[in-house]
Design a protein that fits this description.
Pfam families: Ldh_1_C, Ldh_1_N. Keywords: NAD, Oxidoreductase. The chain has about 450 residues and is α/β, with parallel strands linked by helices. About 30% of the residues lie in helices and about 25% in strands.
Length: about 450
């Protein structure tokens, strides 16, 4: 097996250190833009070969992507580093551009590799790599919440006095401030956490406080040493190990979603089966209504970041059929469909200087459809539609499985129901019309707006 690591910072070097303990790695390649840094690390590692248990792994330092030819697994750790006072999402624009540039180079020499994205914000960077390269979504893995989950287990183990390996649970969602832990999934020594604590005269676990402690853990480390290394490196190695020996392990990693849990066109961490092909499947769990709502909130938050990065960086957003990626300005229509069948059409015409809502209903399907919510469109002084009241882009992006309805009476993004549909997406450059055609029926909702 050939493994590559992009970036010779503390995490990249830490990953190399763990990888060398695997007995089946024939070649390890450390790529760094500054070759001397990679050479120094590899030379240092070479002096460990007689002292550690590993096969005679070939060690390569390089600043040439061609040395990664036919790599099986590549961990991407390079990027702008977080500074004190910043959060991971502050790095979204710069690191998304860097991540996509790296992935495009890797695609030329290692198109079959599985990419593990560690560069923060790893969920956003993974999304844009999936959207702007030819890698299958199963091949692009966000390191996601594996390290957050490890922190959860460590914190719980200290509170109840057992080995972390006897604690089970997940941190899910975004690797960052927008994550959550389903308390129903936390167990200690095979028992639900509440039951274990009650039967052993321990204080019950406060899930909210636990989550805050997990969120703050990385920043606490950063306060003392200005980076986080060991936990992140070990979590990346855990993913590499699962892939390299085809484990079929369940890990809370991020992958591009296509309808799972009603979420589409976003990368966030959920329990996934990881094997030699990358992400085999996203597991289904009966989350509570509150937990599902939290997933939707996290998805909406990440979608907003994705849209902002796309507009400012020129990076494409995901298109499931490859025909067209969403334009980078805000052109979304505020309509929530509540339909009995899977036919609807929403059209935005930017060239008409009115605000009209025209609904045509074919007589034979009149009773099959109704528009359940439509909000008044407003425009800014520059005649651009205010993004806060526009239809969720996800419903305009072609998707094989889901339509989401994001409106509520107070304008917050909520999903009314999920509807299966077939879709096509097109843009007419001549008239500036964006059309999302869902299904093949006669109902059309047309909104025109302008100054």
């Amino acid at each position: 097996m050939k493994i590559g690591v992009i970036g010779s910072g503390s995490v990249g070097v830490g990953v190399c250190n763990y990888v060398l303990t695997l007995g089946h790695v024939r070649e390890l390649v450390l790529y760094n833009r500054t070759l001397s840094r990679a050479k120094g690390e590899i030379l240092d590692f070479q002096h460990t070969s007689s002292l550690t248990f590993s096969k005679n792994t070939k060690l390569v330092a390089t600043d040439d992507y061609s040395d990664l030819k036919d790599a099986d697994i590549i961990a991407i750790t390079a990027g702008v580093q977080i500074q004190e006072g910043q959060n991971r999402l502050d790095l979204a624009h710069a690191n998304s551009v860097i991540g996509v540039e790296i992935a495009k180079e890797l695609e030329k020499v290692a198109p079959n590799a599985i990419l593990i994205v560690v560069t923060n914000p790893c969920d956003i960077v993974s999304y844009f790599i999936s959207s702007n390269t030819g890698y299958d979504k199963r091949q692009v893995i966000s390191a996601g919440c594996v390290v957050d989950t490890a922190r959860l287990m460590s914190i719980v183990s200290k509170r109840v006095g057992v080995d972390p390996k006897n604690v089970f649970g997940y941190i899910l969602g975004e690797h960052g401030n927008n994550c959550f832990t389903p308390k129903s999934l936390i167990s200690i020594a095979g028992q639900p956490a509440d039951y274990y604590c009650a039967s052993n005269d321990l204080e019950p676990i406060d899930a909210n406080q636990l989550l805050e402690d997990v969120k703050n853990a990385g920043y606490e480390i950063f306060k003392y040493k200005q980076n986080t290394t060991h936990g992140v490196s070990a979590s990346v190695f855990r993913i590499i190990q699962a892939i390299s020996v085809n484990e079929h392990s369940v890990l809370p990693i991020g992958t591009l979603l296509s309808g799972e849990y009603g979420l589409d066109n976003v990368v966030l961490s959920l329990p996934c089966v990881v094997n030699a092909d990358g992400v085999q499947t996203v597991l289904t769990h009966p989350f509570t209504g509150e937990e599902k709502e939290k997933l939707f909130e996290i998805s909406d938050h990440l979608q907003n970041v994705i849209q902002d990065v796309s507009k400012t960086s020129g990076l494409r957003m995901h298109s499931s059929n490859g025909e067209y990626n969403l334009p980078k300005n805000d052109t979304r229509v505020v309509i929530s469909f509540d339909v009995a069948t899977s036919t609807a059409a929403g059209v935005i015409d930017q060239t008409v200087g009115k605000r009209d809502l025209l609904m045509n209903r074919s007589k034979n399907i009149m009773d099959s459809f109704r528009i359940s919510a439509a909000r008044r469109l407003t425009t800014t002084s520059s005649s651009r539609v205010n993004s806060s009241i526009l239809f969720d882009r996800r419903s305009l992006v072609p998707s094989p499985s889901l339509l989401t309805s994001p409106l509520t009476s107070n304008g917050e993004a909520k999903r009314r129901r999920n509807l299966p549909f077939s879709s096509s997406f097109r843009r007419s450059n001549k008239v500036g019309t964006v059309a999302a055609v869902l299904g093949s029926g006669a109902l059309a909702a047309i909104v025109s707006y302008g100054s």
